[in-house]
Amino acid sequence: MSTQRKVAIITGASQGIGAGLVKAFLDRDYRVVANSRSIQPSNNPDVLTVAGDISDRSVAERIVKEAVARFGRVDTLVNNAGIFTAKPFTAFTVEDYAQNLAVNLNGFFHVTQFAIAEMEKQGSGHVVSITTTLAEYAIDGVPSVLASLTKGGLNAATKSLAIEYAKRGIRVNAVAPGVIKTPMHGPETHAALASLHPVGRMGEISDIVGGVLYLESAGFVTGEILHVDGGQIAGH
């Protein structure tokens, strides 16, 4: 099979932002490797699905190995898989802590390590992680310590990796969303969540997809935390 078309790996790809990203990259004529714990096989020859928990290193390794075996290369990795647990700090359980670190940090570490190793071979690549503005701008009434701990770590790692690989043709960026209208937020919560943003609305999946696609095409941008958050980062 020809390896000239670009290949994107997207984690957390079965619904919400991840599913939107899969469609967007296909529309840009990429081949896509889509992962989530429950993802189903695809009939599209340009989509390879790999089911499994991204926090499991063997799953991360399989995603990248199967991408190379099927499509011959890895150009882009979007670290979209993540969880958000909103509880008062003292209410977090040891299990909450372990799960947040496993998905948000371990998952990032494992798959990014394998993907960058492939990108180095071709001298080019792009890693984008979905984080959160809450890591830099906490909001009263939105308890978010584990999100800040883990996604804030991804923001810092993004800058570190961007510098480490800048001269090797690999860019590393992040998109920091506000609250996005996805199935995880019931309609009854939308008005309250909209009020958290200076622009007065929740974000749409298309807003985050647009941010990722901008970074994908912006060859002179690396180490950037792109805030797609309705103005949250500016103040409230």
From TrEMBL:
<dbReference type="GO" id="GO:0016491">
    <property type="term" value="F:oxidoreductase activity"/>
</dbReference>
<dbReference type="Pfam" id="PF13561">
    <property type="entry name" value="adh_short_C2"/>
</dbReference>
<comment type="similarity">
    <text>Belongs to the short-chain dehydrogenases/reductases (SDR) family.</text>
</comment>
<keyword id="KW-0560">Oxidoreductase</keyword>
<protein>
    <submittedName>
        <fullName>SDR family NAD(P)-dependent oxidoreductase</fullName>
        <ecNumber>1.1.1.-</ecNumber>
    </submittedName>
</protein>
<dbReference type="InterPro" id="IPR002347">
    <property type="entry name" value="SDR_fam"/>
</dbReference>
<dbReference type="InterPro" id="IPR036291">
    <property type="entry name" value="NAD(P)-bd_dom_sf"/>
</dbReference>
